[in-house]
Write the C-alpha cells for this entry.
Amino acid sequence: MSAYTKIVSRKRSWTPLQVTKGVVAEGSEETLKRCLALRNLELPVKEMLQQGLEKDLPDDPGVIPALQSNMLDENKHDLGFQYAVDAHGVDKKAEREAAMIRKAWLESPEHPILKTAILERSVFFVLLPYYRFNGDAGLLNLASDVSRDEVTHVALHGMVAHDLGLKPTANLNKLRKATVHWAMDLLGTSNNKYLDKDFWLRQSDNLYTKGRADELKETRRSVMPAFFETNNNDLPQYA
C-alpha cells in the first residue's frame, strides 16, 4: 500500500453540527473571535492544494487521491467553523484583519503544498488546542474532529514537501509568526497558561522547529485524541 494511502486510511468520518453558544473561559472571548476569523484560511488551503495538483508531484499513486481527500475535508472544516461563528457572533474588525492575513498566505510565492504544511502545522495546531482549552462544548468537539483530520493533513503535506525537496523559507516563518501573534495578541500574561500570549507563541515556535508541542502533552489524558498524540515520525521535521 502507498505510504500516502496508509495515512488517509486513518481518517474517521464525521459531520459538522450546528452548535449553540455555551460558557467559555473568562478572558478568552476576544481571542476566540480572532481565532474564528481565521476560519477564512480553511478554503484557501483547499485552493492551495488544487494549485499543488497542477504541479509536479512525487511519483506515488497515492498522492493525488490523498490530496483530493484533504481538499474535501476543508469543506467540512469551513462549515463547522461557520456554525461556530453563527453561535458566537462576528467581530467585524477581526474579520477585516483576517482577510488581509488570508491574502498574504495566498500571495506568498512558495510552493502551495509547502505553504499548507507550515500553515496547518504551526498555525492551525495552535488554534485548535486554544478552542479545546478555552472554548465551550461546541468548540471543543469541533476542534477534536478537525484535529483528527489535521493529523493526516500535516503528515501528508509534510511528506509531499519532503519528497519534493522543498524547504521552509524565512518568509513563511515570518508569516506563520505574524499570524499566530495576531490571533493571540489580545492575551496578556496570565497564571493560566492557556490564557497567556507567550505560551501560545511558544507552541507555534516548537511546532515549526521541532514538530511537537511538549507543553500540551497533558491532553493525552483526554478521551479525545489530539494532533500531538500522533507519533512524531509522522510529523516531518524541518531543518
